[in-house]
Target: CPBP family intramembrane metalloprotease
Amino acid sequence: MVRSSAIPALRVRPRVWLGVLVYFLYVAVFYAIFVVNGVDYKRIGESDETLLKWYVIPLAGGALLTAIMVTAYGWWRPAMAERRGLSRWAMTLPIIMATIAIANMVIGDFTTVTPLMWLYLIIGSVLVGFNEEMVNRGQLVVALRSRFGETGVWLLSTAMFAVFHLPNIFLGIGAGAFVQVLMSFGLGSIFYLARRSTGSLVAGMVLHGLWDLTIFSTHASSFHLAGMAAPLLAIAGAIAVPKILAREKRGTAAQLG
Model:
């Protein structure tokens, strides 16, 4: 069966378990550093020290692991680019999400953000965009496409991205981590649309990094536009993607028929 994005000859043939292996190795490295550094998730954006220990350093460790594994597999090209993307109108939700993130930055309260904090925020946001997109919507998508159709690829990769946040229940969020998981599924669906509609994982990386930057840099703001809009975005993403993929499937079947 031909998937929505054909896989070129690679150093290591894509298998589901190989993608899942990278995912769990990343989880292990990231959360091990989190625990060793004594993270309190709610306080990550509090100071330059918390940003370095709980944002930059765990993500730097995860980035190193991710780059090594993707290089070993030889999956950079299919992980970064689509050979067949969705129609451009599927970019609507990613554009709305980016607009909200930018607006939140414009109206946010940055009185407590120092220049060194800005440096760590930017570095960490670049790393989170690279790491979580490459792990979940990069190499994992390549692996899952070796066995599943695109709806299954979206569902499984996005669910794994969402569950990645569950350990935060023990790291300062408590039961709120369950809400974070649900929110991550919906927002992850929008990151998936960013990849598929532009034909490049870079779009998802930029959007993801921008979103985290606005969340952590304006956490002290009394009016948090991104936080207020996030539930609506998550719901819209979770509903829109299966509908878009169903339409894509019907269009492909019509062309073949």
In short: The chain has one domain: 16-256. DSSP finds nine helices and no strands in the chain. Residues 7 and 73 are 13 Å apart (CA to CA). The mean pLDDT is 92.
